[in-house]
Design a protein that fits this description.
Distance between the termini: 40 Å
Number of strands: 7
Helix content: 40-55%
Number of helices: 8
Shape: globular
Length: 234
């Protein structure tokens, strides 16, 4: 599989950076993106909360690498707020980045994947899209929609040797979670996770590596809950 070209959104930190490092170490060429600046030629600084930028990103990745064999939709934002306090502009930004832009990128990538009769698409969703989360209804709804997209595309693209899957992480040990949670909040969260731990970003990266390999060619249309048992209930 080395030599395949990957378009990875949100590649500069957290889960995305772990995926980037894992795939690069396995010989993939990875074109990344994010809002931060970089001197890397295989990178574009861009705001994907504006859906018009999806085509700009895809065209740049394709022009740079020659083709996009694998698409990993990782970029996203999270809003924790009661529904009556969620502002319209926040809702629009969240839905654009977490759902509209990934769907557009899929539509661009699929055209080329069909011609090659091979492709891999992975969406990074959330356990919140599988089981719901109070005070995060917009986020949960967008991630649930992304899972519906993955299942539908898996059916649509199966004859073309294209697999589509979604990874739904639970709480992940990243700088973002460290900044968002104090020690007491972390202890409360750990109390409800069966394994009493946060998922490490490298675990998600390793699962991505497997899902795009030929060993996983029969795995498609799946939402995989990588959550330390959180989705199983108390």
């Amino acid at each position: 599989m080395s030599g395949k070209n990957v378009l990875l959104t949100g590649s500069k930190k957290g889960i995305g950076l772990a995926i980037y490092d894992e795939l690069k170490s396995r010989g993939y060429r990875v074109f990344g993106c994010g809002r931060s600046k970089s001197d890397d030629n295989d990178y574009l600084s861009i705001d994907l909360s504006d859906p018009k930028n999806a085509k700009t990103l895809y065209d740049c990745a394709k022009e740079t690498m020659g083709s996009v064999d694998i698409l990993i939709n990782n970029a996203g934002i999270y809003i924790y707020s009661p529904i009556e306090n969620t502002k319209q502009n926040e809702l629009i930004e969240l839905v654009n980045l977490n759902f509209i832009t990934p769907q557009l990128l899929c539509s661009y990538a699929v055209s080329d994947m069909k011609k090659n009769m091979w492709g891999r698409i992975i969406n990074i969703g959330s356990i919140s899209g599988s089981v719901g989360e109070a005070n995060a209804s917009a986020y949960s709804a967008a991630k649930a929609g992304l899972l519906g997209l993955a299942k539908s595309l898996a059916l649509e693209l199966a004859p073309y040797n294209i697999t589509v899957n979604q990874i739904n992480p639970g709480w992940v040990d990243t700088k973002l979670s460290d900044e968002a949670l104090d020690d007491e909040e972390k202890r409360e969260i750990l109390d409800i996770i069966p394994q009493r731990r946060f998922i490490e970003p490298y675990e998600i990266a390793k699962l991505c590596s497997y899902l795009i390999s030929d060993d996983a060619k029969g795995l498609t249309g799946q939402g995989i809950n990588l959550c330390a048992g959180l989705s199983c209930g108390a």
